[in-house]
Amino acid sequence: MGGLTTAEIANAFLVPEATMAQRISRAKQRVRASGAPLRMPAADDEAGPRLRSVLHVLYLIFNEGYTSSVGRDLHRVELSGEAIRLARLVHGLLPGDGEVAGLLALMLLTDARRPARSGPGGELIPLADQHRALWDQRLITEGVALLTRALARGAVGEYQLQAAIAAIHDQAARVEDTDWPQILASYRLLERMTGNPMVALNRAIATAMVHGPAAGLTLLDALDEPLAGHYRLDAVRAHLLEMAGDAPAAVEYYRAAASRTTSIPEQNYLTIKAARLRTGRPS
Asked: Which run of H or of E encompasses 233?
């Protein structure tokens, strides 16, 4: 498996690269100082937190592979593929764990869209513009089946909720068929469950799709501090301003987002969006 750089790990955890480098260094020092052998957890009170940590790491590795945060490639298939392989392994060991199944389902349902996410030149194609016939129906079927079995067990966790959102997107034959009210309800629950600002960002998008761009833009104001300087906040604000018909402001935020991302495909996409909007050409 190709290794993750410190910059990529920092992007995944929403912290500066220097901060992440210090955390990694301190963690290595603690491991060396402890002298603890590698072993399986001895009790459930150890196993639970450790499993959650493992699932979180697999989730971050998959995300970095699905949308590389640095460089010229949109995807790093070796990362997303290895994350799926490891998630299958964990699911095989713990077939009754709903969150393990939820994470694997989320990966499969998301990866199913990868063939339609980029054009001939590697350019990014957003979800709304993807040719859905290119989506991998085999992965969608497997992911939905995994999710259905997991949800039937009762308690619902964050990975199951994210998988449910992915399934709603995947099962919509056309972008206009997307059940945005259900997606919004799921993001509201997910935000209460996690307190994650990226979830709040996605809730703002879903809110705009259900209640209009002004409602979504209002929600973004609360994210100015937790996501300060993050290109995704600028990109979402630009998109909602474009929906609201405020082209000059949208151009400004598309340009700001392009200047802040370290992904070349995303940078190109955002720059083109700004240029087309400025000249009045259709996106």
From this structure: helix 231-244
Q: How confident is the model at residue 180 (pLDDT cuts 50, 70, 90)?
A: very high
pLDDT in tens, 253-270: 999 999 999 999 999 999
Which residues make Cβ contacts (< 8 Å) with residue 214, sequence separation at least 6? 244
Return the number of other C-beta atoms located less than 10 Å from residue 279's C-beta. Answer: 8
Terminal-to-terminal C-alpha distance of the chain: 37
Query: Three-state DSSP class for 254?
Result: helix
Helical (H) or strand (E) element with 277 = helix 264-279
Going by C-alpha positions, the residue among 84, 90, 28 that lies closest to residue 54 is 90
Q: DSSP code of 4?
A: P
* One-character DSSP codes across 115-175: GGSB-TTS-B--GGG--GGGS-HHHHHHHHHHHHHHHTTS---HHHHHHHHHHHHHT-SSG
Cα separation, 263 vs 122, in Å, equals: 12
CB 55 within 8 A of CB 159: yes
What does the block give as tokens for 273? Answer: 């969006």
Tell me if 83 sits within 8 A of 65, measured CB to CB: yes
Mean pLDDT of 14-21: 59
Domain ranges of the chain: 1-12+49-178
* CA distance linking residue 96 with residue 49, whole number of Å: 17
Pick the closest to residue 204 from 230, 236, 250 (CA basis): 236
Q: Give the separation between CA 246 and CA 216, rounded to whole angstroms.
A: 14
What CA–CA distance (Å, rounded) separates 127 from 224? 25
CA 100 to chain centre: 17
CA–CA gap between residue 63 and residue 8 (Å, rounded): 10
Q: How many Cα atoms within 13 Å fall on the side-chain side of residue 229?
A: 5
